[in-house]
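REQUEST ID: PR-0412
SUBMITTED BY: lab tech R.K.
PRIORITY: routine
TASK: structure prediction, single protein chain
INPUT:
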Amino acid sequence: MVRKEIAQERHEVQGGVGTVMCYNVISKEEFSDHGRLYARFVLPPGTSIGWHVHEGETEPYYILAGEGTFTDSDGSVQLVHKGDCCIIEEGCGHSIANNGTEDLEFMALIYNVEN
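STATUS: complete
OUTPUT:
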Protein backbone atom coordinates (compact mmCIF):
# COMPACT_ATOMS: atom_id res chain seq x y z
CA MET A 1 0.00 0.00 0.00
CA VAL A 2 1.18 3.51 -0.81
CA ARG A 3 -0.49 6.69 0.36
CA LYS A 4 0.26 10.33 0.97
CA GLU A 5 1.06 11.92 4.30
CA ILE A 6 -1.83 13.78 5.92
CA ALA A 7 -1.11 17.45 6.65
CA GLN A 8 -2.42 19.08 9.81
CA GLU A 9 -1.78 22.54 11.25
CA ARG A 10 -1.16 22.31 14.97
CA HIS A 11 -1.26 25.34 17.24
CA GLU A 12 0.79 25.82 20.41
CA VAL A 13 1.79 22.13 20.54
CA GLN A 14 2.37 21.00 24.14
CA GLY A 15 2.22 24.67 25.19
CA GLY A 16 4.79 25.71 22.59
CA VAL A 17 4.82 28.87 20.50
CA GLY A 18 3.07 29.38 17.16
CA THR A 19 1.70 27.12 14.46
CA VAL A 20 3.61 24.09 13.19
CA MET A 21 2.80 21.62 10.44
CA CYS A 22 2.40 17.93 11.23
CA TYR A 23 2.45 15.48 8.32
CA ASN A 24 1.12 12.17 9.67
CA VAL A 25 2.54 9.10 8.00
CA ILE A 26 0.75 6.42 10.04
CA SER A 27 -2.49 6.91 11.96
CA LYS A 28 -2.78 6.01 15.64
CA GLU A 29 -5.20 3.21 14.71
CA GLU A 30 -2.62 1.61 12.40
CA PHE A 31 -0.18 1.19 15.30
CA SER A 32 -2.40 -1.54 16.80
CA ASP A 33 -1.71 -0.23 20.32
CA HIS A 34 2.09 -0.25 19.75
CA GLY A 35 2.37 3.53 19.45
CA ARG A 36 0.53 6.68 18.49
CA LEU A 37 2.55 8.91 16.16
CA TYR A 38 4.83 8.68 13.16
CA ALA A 39 5.00 12.07 11.49
CA ARG A 40 7.15 14.72 9.86
CA PHE A 41 7.04 18.06 11.64
CA VAL A 42 7.93 21.44 10.15
CA LEU A 43 8.56 24.28 12.60
CA PRO A 44 8.88 27.71 10.99
CA PRO A 45 11.34 30.17 12.55
CA GLY A 46 10.19 31.36 15.98
CA THR A 47 7.97 28.34 16.73
CA SER A 48 8.38 25.52 19.23
CA ILE A 49 6.97 22.35 20.70
CA GLY A 50 6.66 22.88 24.45
CA TRP A 51 8.03 20.84 27.32
CA HIS A 52 6.26 17.54 27.87
CA VAL A 53 6.97 14.13 29.42
CA HIS A 54 6.46 10.66 27.90
CA GLU A 55 5.11 8.06 30.33
CA GLY A 56 5.03 4.48 29.04
CA GLU A 57 6.38 5.54 25.66
CA THR A 58 9.48 6.91 23.98
CA GLU A 59 10.03 9.34 21.11
CA PRO A 60 13.05 9.90 18.90
CA TYR A 61 13.31 13.02 16.72
CA TYR A 62 15.41 12.66 13.56
CA ILE A 63 16.40 16.08 12.20
CA LEU A 64 15.92 16.33 8.41
CA ALA A 65 16.62 20.03 7.77
CA GLY A 66 17.33 23.32 9.52
CA GLU A 67 18.55 23.75 13.06
CA GLY A 68 16.97 24.18 16.44
CA THR A 69 17.49 23.98 20.16
CA PHE A 70 16.57 20.74 21.88
CA THR A 71 15.99 20.77 25.63
CA ASP A 72 16.58 17.36 27.19
CA SER A 73 15.08 15.85 30.34
CA ASP A 74 18.01 17.02 32.48
CA GLY A 75 17.45 20.63 31.34
CA SER A 76 20.49 20.70 29.06
CA VAL A 77 20.03 22.58 25.78
CA GLN A 78 21.78 21.50 22.61
CA LEU A 79 21.85 22.90 19.10
CA VAL A 80 20.60 20.24 16.65
CA HIS A 81 21.16 20.01 12.89
CA LYS A 82 20.38 17.76 9.93
CA GLY A 83 21.34 14.16 10.72
CA ASP A 84 21.04 14.47 14.52
CA CYS A 85 18.77 12.13 16.46
CA CYS A 86 17.26 13.31 19.75
CA ILE A 87 16.33 10.28 21.85
CA ILE A 88 13.63 10.76 24.45
CA GLU A 89 13.42 7.80 26.80
CA GLU A 90 10.37 6.62 28.73
CA GLY A 91 9.56 8.89 31.66
CA CYS A 92 11.67 11.75 30.29
CA GLY A 93 10.67 15.23 29.17
CA HIS A 94 11.81 17.41 26.29
CA SER A 95 11.06 20.38 24.06
CA ILE A 96 12.36 21.73 20.77
CA ALA A 97 12.44 25.23 19.31
CA ASN A 98 13.35 26.79 15.99
CA ASN A 99 15.47 29.83 16.78
CA GLY A 100 16.98 29.87 13.28
CA THR A 101 16.05 31.60 10.04
CA GLU A 102 14.92 28.52 8.07
CA ASP A 103 12.28 25.85 8.72
CA LEU A 104 13.25 23.09 11.17
CA GLU A 105 12.06 19.74 9.85
CA PHE A 106 12.17 16.40 11.66
CA MET A 107 10.58 12.97 11.88
CA ALA A 108 8.96 11.95 15.18
CA LEU A 109 7.96 8.45 16.26
CA ILE A 110 6.08 7.84 19.51
CA TYR A 111 5.89 4.18 20.42
CA ASN A 112 5.03 2.22 23.56
CA VAL A 113 7.88 0.73 25.56
CA GLU A 114 5.78 -2.21 26.79
CA ASN A 115 4.73 -3.64 23.41
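NOTES: Strands lie at 6-11, 19-26, 35-43, 48-53, 57-65, 67-71, 77-81, 85-88, 93-97, 104-112.
REVIEWED BY: pending
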